[in-house]
Amino acid sequence: MWSWVAHRITGVTVFFFLLVHVTDTALVRISPDIYNGVIATYKTPLVNLMEVGLVGAVLYHALNGIRIILIDFWSKGPRYQKGMLRGLIVIWLVVMIPGTYFMLLRTIESLFGSAS
User: Fold this and answer.
1) For residues 2 and 50, what is the distance between their CA atoms, to the nearest angstrom?
2) How far apart are the C-alpha atoms of 115 and 109, rounded to whole Å?
3) Phi-psi region for residue 31, left (φ > 0), alpha (ψ -120 to 50) or beta?
4) Around 65, how many Cα atoms within 13 Å sit in the side-chain half-sphere?
5) Distance between CA 71 and CA 5 in Å, rounded?
6) Which of 66, 69, 73, 71 is nearest to 88 (CA)?
7) Within 13 Å of residue 101, how many CA atoms lie on the same side as its CB?
8) Is 74 helix (H, G, I), strand (E, B) or coil?
9) Hey, what domains does the chain have and what are their CATH numbers?
10) Which of 101, 83, 105, 104 is nearest to 93 (CA)?
11) Structure letter (DSSP) for residue 42
């Protein structure tokens, strides 16, 4: 049940990101200055945190999509769906924990200073 809900939420999240992305990219044809202003607003710690969430959403949505395909088209898929969900969570964590560190590293250094 929760994987179904999370799949829908991540799908809507990715859709709205793509909608905003296409819209702000189209601004470059209207006015490069406006485009540069919009892009400058994306260079904030809050947006960096939102990018981490977006990567997590895309990764979950993709992995869960593969899991759903396996459940639907592999004869043993329904039998192993809980195990595949656990595997999905493990893969997601293995990718997201170091990925989050590297994605937020520059923001953390700019807010709190470099560790070295």
Assistant:
1) 22
2) 8
3) beta
4) 9
5) 17
6) 66
7) 5
8) coil
9) 2-109 (1.20.1300.10)
10) 101
11) T
Q: Which amino acid is at 22?
A: V
Q: pLDDT by residue (tens digit) across 45-102?
A: 999 999 999 999 999 999 999 999 999 999 999 999 999 999 999 999 999 999 999 9
Q: How far apart are CA 24 and CA 39, in angstroms?
A: 8
- Length of the chain counted residue by residue: 116
Give the model's pLDDT for residue 116: 59
Residue for token pair 């949505």:
61
Distance of CA 4 to the CA centre of its chain: 17
- CA separation, residue 97 to residues 1, 28, 56, 71, 104 (Å): 25, 34, 10, 27, 11
